[in-house]
């Protein structure tokens, strides 16, 4: 029998009605009871937060807890609110480097025990996944299993709320055998939180970028248009001088796309190439939920006064799709 640790962090799945709306109140014991596998699941009440209140420090708390007890369990379930679940999954994907067993995040759109809730089904799916031979971080939700660095919540209410961006869903029936020469696990939990995300819109002033550079941010992700473009010399106000100032201040600029599918490619158009010449790098196919913690991690590994040159994995995780 597999030995599983369930870590509860709050979220809708654990919520109960209050005069001010839903608020986390249920415990890990309530989650375990819903699965009905008490003999194989141990529990830990780690947090009790609406996932709107989850911050990078909480990612570190979860990652450090899993790392500390990793060898004592065959798999892990993390119950979590849906609003920031994709961010947490991506952060854990990168911080739990070379994870050799399943870490499965799940939650619900309606609280556990409420009529018509999806909570019990998601918990059972997460338990099945946590008992499988999958190695790494994933989300089990709405009948899908999604790689930790590829998830995006695309619907605010639907039971099938998440999609995998840039790669296929995980199929437990076709998992490859574990590599005999896989590198050893290590916790890679340092994060530099001086990262901002700006969404480009027509007429946006480059002063918005300058303000973040002046405020001391070490990394800025710009959600640009199409393949990741930002206004160039033909625009009323070009962003290129601001990108030059970012380079001078050792502020890493990552250009990504507002499109859900397809990813960014700043080598395609002149405006993208000009940005790259000024030090901007492409976010590739990663969704913003993965880019954000990944840039924090890369900056933590980059000496002060230097910029990140690539976001490509160098910790042995599977290659980006």
The CATH topology of the largest domain: Rossmann fold
Q: Indicate the mean pLDDT.
A: 95
Cα radius of gyration in angstroms = 20 Å
Distance between the termini: 34 Å
Proportion of strand residues: 15-25%
Order of helices and strands: EEEHEHEHEEHEEEEEEHEHEHEH
The CATH first-level class of the largest domain comes to Alpha Beta
Q: Show unreliable segments.
A: 314-321
Number of helices: 8
Corresponding CATH superfamily of the largest domain: L-asparaginase, N-terminal domain
Mind summarizing the main beta sheet?
A: 6 strands, mixed
Helix content: 25-40%
Strand order, sheet with most strands: 4-1-5-7-8-9
Briefly note the structural class of the backbone: alpha/beta
Overview of this protein structure:
This protein is an alpha/beta fold and 321 residues long. It folds into 2 domains: 4-187, Rossmann fold, CATH 3.40.50; 195-300, Rossmann fold, CATH 3.40.50. The chain is built from 8 helices and 16 strands. A 6-stranded mixed beta sheet has the order 4-1-5-7-8-9, with helices on both faces. β15 (252-257), α7 (270-277) and β16 form a beta-alpha-beta unit. α2 crosses α3 (85-95) and α3 (85-95) runs parallel beside α8 (288-300). The chain starts with a strand and ends in a 21-residue tail after the last helix.
